[in-house]
Design a protein that fits this description.
mainly alpha; Serine Threonine Protein Phosphatase 5, Tetratricopeptide repeat; 2 domains; 0% strand
């Protein structure tokens, strides 16, 4: 089976690549998305709140006692945490939690060191500690978040979302990162409703979350809100996701399913345009030859009237061209209507569709 050759994304489809780069920024320039009063009002209604560093350290101390940690382990964990007067970035708190758990648990140590490496040649850990319900939730949830963050930063979106599934803000030391990476993955996979839901939750604490998270969350929200099902925008995004998967060496069931979705959606669009074209032609033919001359210039969207008697041989054009029910000239008119006023990458998407039909011999 030939895989769709996905066009390089332009316009808003650069956002996916931008997000993966921006999300690792340590800081971002200040941007104003609204009044301070509006932000404060949203803050008052927040359904979640980030734990303080002291609260996180208390949970670690309780874990140390429950595990009967020896003095060496306690000293190693203590050395990972600065004085309480130092304010830590939430993602830094998560890193220190993961490093602390690595001191206590061999499996946690393997996971922690794995996430310090590039994911290109690494396998996704199947560690029991990530799913074993006998392991304290504090341990499981924070390790899964660390793994998911690492996977997402390496463009392994499906795997990242699998690690985050079922986790809630109250379960982790860095709830902002949890909501951010959930929204990021859902944005890439076109899960519009879930993405917007998590963006809204994340921005409930916009004044306290890292500025980079707030900035990218607003970008994701603005980008995915206009997305409509069965639109050329959706098709182009699906093709971008196919390209991402193929770049990762993935050519399995999911890729084939997305390819078939692209073909089906494009066929539906073209069929609708063909019907509109045929209706316009029928209306023009039925108007007769005695119609008065128009008093105003013809509009682009109006079909021209035939000036002959209208007596032509009836021909069954069928599917002789192999691309549908319209002859090449009229099909080109349909394509021009589809691509009118659209960004170039949409037209490339349509061209790729016809290349696929030609290559596979679809009749």
């Amino acid at each position: 089976m030939h895989h769709l050759a996905c066009p390089q994304p332009r316009s808003n489809h650069l956002l996916g690549a931008m997000l993966l780069g921006l999300m690792t920024f340590v800081a971002a320039p200040a941007l104003s998305w609204g009044s301070d009063e509006a932000a404060n009002e949203l803050q008052k209604k927040a359904s979640w709140s980030p734990p303080t560093t002291a609260e996180v350290k208390k949970q670690l101390d309780d874990l140390l006692n429950a595990r009967k940690a020896d003095e060496t382990q306690k000293l190693k964990v203590s050395a990972l945490w600065p004085d309480d007067t130092i304010v830590l970035d939430p993602s830094d708190v998560l890193d220190r939690v993961a490093a602390s758990l690595a001191v206590l648990e061999p499996e946690a140590s393997a996971i922690y060191h794995l996430t310090q490496q590039p994911a290109a040649a690494a396998k996704i850990p199947a560690a029991t500690i990530l799913l074993d319900e006998s392991v304290p939730l504090f341990v499981r949830a924070n390790l899964r978040l660390v793994v998911a963050r690492w996977l997402a930063q390496n463009n392994l979106i499906d795997e990242a979302l699998a690690q985050l599934r079922g986790l809630n803000p109250a379960d982790v030391a860095d709830p902002a990162s949890l909501l951010f990476y959930q929204a990021l993955g859902q944005h890439r996979l076109l899960e519009k409703d879930n993405c917007l839901k998590n963006v809204t939750l994340l921005l409930e604490n916009e004044s306290t979350i890292p500025r980079r998270y707030a900035t990218i969350a607003r970008l994701m929200e603005a980008d995915i809100k206009p997305l409509k099902v069965d639109s050329l925008d959706e098709v182009a995004r699906l093709m971008d996701d196919i390209r991402r998967r193929l770049d990762l060496g993935r050519a399995g069931t999911k890729v084939r399913e997305e390819e078939e979705q692209v073909i089906a959606k494009l066929e539906k669009m073209i069929e609708e345009m063909e019907k509109q074209q045929q209706q316009q032609q029928q209306q023009a033919s039925g108007s007769g030859s005695g119609s008065p001359m128009p008093s105003s210039p013809m509009q682009d969207s109006q079909a021209a009237e035939l000036k002959g008697p209208g007596n032509v041989d009836s021909k069954n054009i069928g599917k002789k061209d192999g691309w549908g029910n319209l002859p090449p000239k009229e099909r080109q008119e349909v394509l021009q209507q589809i691509g009118r006023d659209l960004p170039a990458h949409f037209r490339e998407t349509i061209e790729e569709y016809f290349k696929r039909l030609a290559q596979d011999g679809v009749k």
